[in-house]
Write a structure and sequence with these properties.
Elements lengths: L7 E5 L4 H12 L3 E6 L2 H11 L3 E5 L5 H14 L5 E4 L14 H29 L2 E6 L12 H21 L4 E8 L13 H5 L9 H12 L10 E4 L7
Parallel strand pairs: 1-2, 1-4, 2-3, 4-5, 5-6, 6-7
Helix pairs in contact: 1-7, 3-4, 4-5
Amino acid sequence: MNRLDNKIAIITGAAQGMGASHARMFAAEGAKVVLTDVQQEAGQSLADEIGEQAVFVKQDVSSSSDWDAVCAVTKDRFGIPNVLVNNAGLYFIGQVDEADPEQVKKLLEVNVFGAWLGISKLAPLMRQAGGGSIINLSSLAGMRGIPWHAIYGASKWAVRGLTKTAAYDLGGEGIRVNAILPGAITNTGMSGTLDEDQLAAIPMHRSGQPEEVSQLAVFLASDESAYITGADHVIDGGRSLW
C-alpha cells in the first residue's frame, strides 16, 4: 500500500473498464487521481465513489482545449501532475478495405493524436515537478497482425512508436514513458467473451483481468520503475509467444 504517495495522476478513459480499475487502484495506493472521460455520469459516479482523492473532468482527448481544462483543474485541486495514463481509446474491427473513413479518422484522433496531445500538455508540467511517468496503453494488436484489426492495430503500433521516441526526447529531464500492451482482458467494454478455441491459443488458457493491468500500471507510475523507460510491457497470458 501507499506505493503512489505524492503522485498526482491524470487517467484518461477512466469511466469504465481498465481506466476505472486504474483509478481505483491508484487511489488505493495513495495517489491523487484526476479521472477524465466523455462519459460524464459514469466518470463522476466513480470519482464520488473514490472520494476526496479523486476528481472527474469531462474530456475529449482529441481536444487541445479540453486538455488545458484538465491540466488547470488538476493544478487547482491537487497540484502539478507527475503521472499521466493515456488510457482512452476507441475500438472497432472489420475488413481493412471496408472501414468507414470518418470512423477511421475518429479512432486515430482519439488513440494516437489524443495520446500525443496528452504528452505535449503534460511534459512541460512534469518538468516543473522534476520528472514524472507517462504510461501509454497500446495493445497486442500493436505488435502483431491480427485479422480485422487493421485500423485499431495501426493506432496501437503508432502508440508504441510515440512511446519510444518520447522516452528518448524526455528521458534527460526525468520523464519516463512506457507502453502497456494488453492481450485479451475481460470487462473492458471493448471486447467480447472468448470462445474455447481463442482461450486455447493463450498459454495460460484464460483472459486477463483489468486489475492485473492496473497492477502493472501502478508499478510503472511508482518509483519502483525509476530506471525503466521506452519499454513495451506485454501482459497477454503468453499469447504473443507464437
